[in-house]
Write a structure and sequence with these properties.
This protein has 5 helices and no strands. The chain is mainly alpha-helical and 145 residues long.
């Protein structure tokens, strides 16, 4: 099995070609064709084609969001457990001051960087992108769907 490329801020996002390029393109094409059909052949059938194509597009987009939300909850739990183990006692109360997005962004920080980044995230109210850009020793997450 091929070793994945070293992960960092510039390459940590993942695209699923079948989903992002094929399925979404086909659904957008279906919506476009339904709009064109409605414009050129006004009627119940063309209106229904638009409704169904929009419903399919929304369903596919929502179905993508559900597993991502479940993963975010798992990441949040894993990272809070890691912070409990890694952070000094005096800093553990900061765990609960972090937003969900900050906790998820901090998963890429090495254990040695974590205390300083948690402190900066809480005191400076860093956005997830700022947290990720501040990481020097990237801890990869190859399991994100």
């Amino acid at each position: 099995m091929a070793q994945p490329a070293e992960q960092n801020f510039s390459n940590h996002t993942r695209l699923d070609p079948l989903y992002h390029f094929v399925l979404l393109a086909l659904l957008l094409l279906a919506v476009g064709l339904a709009v064109d059909m409605l414009v050129h052949q006004v009627g119940v059938a063309s209106l229904w084609a638009l409704v169904v194509s929009l419903a399919l597009l929304l369903a596919v987009m929502k179905l993508r969001l559900y597993p991502l939300k479940a993963q975010d909850r798992i990441i949040r739990l894993e990272e809070r457990l890691r912070m409990e183990a890694v952070l000094p006692e005096s800093q553990k109360r900061e765990i609960w001051a972090l937003t969900e997005a900050q906790v998820i962004a901090l998963r890429f920080a090495s254990d040695s960087e974590l205390p300083a980044l948690v402190n900066a995230a809480v005191t400076k109210k860093l956005a997830p992108k700022e947290i990720k850009q501040s990481i020097k020793n990237w801890r990869p997450d190859y399991f994100r769907v």
